[in-house]
Design brief:
The protein has about 425 residues and is an all-alpha fold. The chain contains 25 helices and three strands. The protein folds into three domains: about 80 residues, Herpes Virus-1 (2-Layer Sandwich); about 190 residues, Leucine-rich Repeat Variant; about 110 residues. A three-stranded antiparallel beta sheet has the order 2-1-3. A hairpin with a 5-residue loop joins strand 1 and strand 2. The N and C termini lie far apart (about 105 Å). The N terminus is likely disordered.
C-alpha cells in the first residue's frame, strides 16, 4: 500500500520538489537568492532555526523577504492535472522523460534572463511534431510564456539578448499546430504580439523571418480578422517586409509563405490593396514574374489581378514598362489558371485604362495574338474567359485594325461588319 501511495510522488519532476524537504511543493516561494522553496519549510528555516543563509547554496542573505512563485505553482498544478495512472500506462517512458525535461525547461525559461539556450532545448522537444508533447506544453501555459518573451522586444528592441530570445521564441511557436478554436490564435492576435512579429519581419534573421511569416500564414488560415489590426498599426511597412521576403531567392519556403500571406491580406480587404500598391507591390511583383516557377507565377499573377481591381493598381501596372509584356508572355505558357488570371488582368486594363500606349503594347508583345488563339482552344470550362476575350477584341478591334498584324478573319467572328475596315 505504501509503495502504491509513493509511486505518484516519485514521478514528480525534481524542479517541483522543495530543496529542503525534497517533497513536492504546494506553496512555492522564492527568496532573494532566486531559489524556490516550500513556504512552510523556508519560514521554519528563517524563523525557528534563525538561519541567515540560503539552504541550497549556503549563500549569506540580507533580505528575508519571500515572494510567492505563482508561475511554478501553476506549472505544478498543470502537471498534476495531466498526470493519471491511466495516461501513464499508455505513454512511453520517453514521454515521461521528455515531460519532466519540458517542465524543467519551462521553469528555467521563466527564472533566467538568458533564455536562448533553454528555448533551443524546448524547440528540440517540440519540433518532432509529437502531439502529446505539444498538448502538454500548452497545458503548462507555454504559449503565454513564449508570447511574453516575443512582446519583450517592444520594450528592449535594441537589447541583443531580448532580441535573440524573441527570435528563438518565434521558432518554438512555429513548431506548434493551432486552429481557429485554439486559444493560441487569440494570444497571437494581441496588438503587442502583432507589433513584435512585425519587427521580426523587418529586422530578424532569415530563420526568424521564415518562422514569423509561417506563423502569419497559419493565423490567416485560421482567422483573417487580425490583418486589419496589423495593417492599421504598421501601414505600408508590413507590405515592404513581405515583398522583400517574396523577392528573396535564398529561402523558397519563406518566399512561398510570404506570397500566401499577401494573398490572405489582399483578399480580406480592398483598403489593404491600396496600402500594398503604395508600398510598390505591383512593380515588385511584375519584375518577379519572368523567372518564377509555375506555382509562384500563379500566386504572383493572382496578386497583380487583385491590385488591378483598383484604379491605382491599374495605373501602376500600365506605367510599368514590363506589365503587359510579362502577362502576355505567360498566357498559354504556364497553366489554365494562370491564363485565366492573365485574361482578367488584360480585361481590367483594357476596360478601364484603354490608352493608345496600352493598346499598342498589347499588339507589340503579342497579347492580341494570344487572345485570338484562346478563342480556338479549350472547352466549356473556359466560357467566361472566352467571353472576356471577345469583349476585349470587340472593344478595341477598330483601333487594332489599323495595324497589319491584326488578323482580318476576326471581322466576321466578332460581327463588326464592313465598318471594320
Amino acid at each position: 500500500m505504501d509503495n502504491h501511495q509513493r509511486a505518484p510522488t516519485m514521478e514528480f519532476p525534481h524542479d517541483f520538489r522543495c530543496p529542503i524537504s525534497m517533497e513536492p511543493m504546494k506553496e512555492p516561494v522564492t527568496i532573494s537568492t532566486g531559489v524556490t522553496y516550500e513556504r512552510k519549510n523556508i519560514e521554519k528555516w528563517f524563523l525557528i532555526y534563525k538561519k541567515n543563509t540560503c539552504p541550497a547554496t549556503m549563500q549569506p542573505i540580507d533580505s528575508f523577504e519571500i515572494t510567492p512563485n505563482y508561475t511554478l505553482k501553476r506549472l505544478i498544478n498543470s502537471w498534476k492535472d495531466g498526470y493519471s495512472p491511466s495516461s501513464s500506462s499508455c505513454s512511453s517512458p520517453t514521454h515521461h522523460v521528455q515531460s519532466n525535461e519540458l517542465v524543467s525547461i519551462m521553469k528555467t525559461i521563466e527564472s533566467t534572463p538568458f533564455k536562448v539556450t533553454s528555448l533551443k532545448k524546448l524547440k528540440s522537444i517540440l519540433e518532432t511534431g509529437d502531439e502529446i508533447m505539444a498538448s502538454e506544453f500548452k497545458k503548462l501555459s507555454g504559449v503565454e510564456v513564449l508570447i511574453n518573451i516575443v512582446e519583450q522586444v517592444l520594450v528592449d528592441s535594441f537589447d541583443f539578448i531580448a532580441f535573440r530570445a524573441c527570435e528563438e521564441a518565434l521558432s518554438v511557436l512555429h513548431q506548434l499546430p493551432f486552429s481557429s478554436e485554439d486559444e493560441t490564435i487569440c494570444l497571437l492576435m494581441k496588438p503587442e504580439c502583432l507589433k513584435s512579429m512585425a519587427i521580426m519581419l523587418q529586422r530578424g534573421s532569415a530563420e526568424a523571418r521564415l518562422c514569423t511569416v509561417s506563423i502569419f500564414e497559419k493565423m490567416g488560415k485560421a482567422d483573417n480578422n487580425h490583418w486589419n489590426l496589423l495593417i492599421q498599426d504598421q501601414g505600408i511597412d508590413v507590405f515592404k517586409s513581405l515583398l522583400e521576403i517574396v523577392s528573396d531567392e535564398i529561402s523558397r519556403k519563406a518566399s512561398s509563405c510570404a506570397l500566401q500571406v499577401l494573398i490572405q491580406i489582399l483578399k480580406a480587404s480592398k483598403k489593404s490593396r491600396l496600402k500594398a500598391i503604395e508600398a510598390g507591390a505591383v512593380c515588385t511583383l511584375i519584375e518577379l514574374v519572368p523567372d518564377s516557377t509555375r506555382s509562384k507565377c500563379e500566386k504572383i499573377m493572382y496578386l497583380i489581378k487583385l491590385m488591378c481591381e483598383c484604379a491605382d493598381g491599374r495605373l501602376a501596372f500600365v506605367e510599368h514598362g514590363l506589365g503587359i509584356a510579362v502577362v502576355s508572355k505567360k498566357l498559354l505558357n504556364i497553366s489554365i489558371a494562370t491564363t485565366k488570371i492573365g485574361v482578367k488582368i488584360l480585361w481590367l486594363v483594357c476596360n478601364f485604362h484603354p490608352t493608345e500606349k496600352v493598346l499598342e503594347e498589347m499588339l507589340f508583345y503579342g497579347s492580341m495574338k494570344k487572345l485570338v488563339a484562346l478563342l480556338h482552344i479549350g472547352g466549356e470550362d473556359d466560357s467566361s474567359t472566352k467571353e472576356r476575350v471577345v469583349k476585349i477584341l470587340k472593344l478595341h478591334a477598330n483601333s487594332w485594325s489599323r495595324y497589319p498584324c491584326f488578323p482580318r478573319e476576326m471581322k466576321e467572328y466578332l460581327g463588326l461588319g464592313r465598318d471594320f475596315c
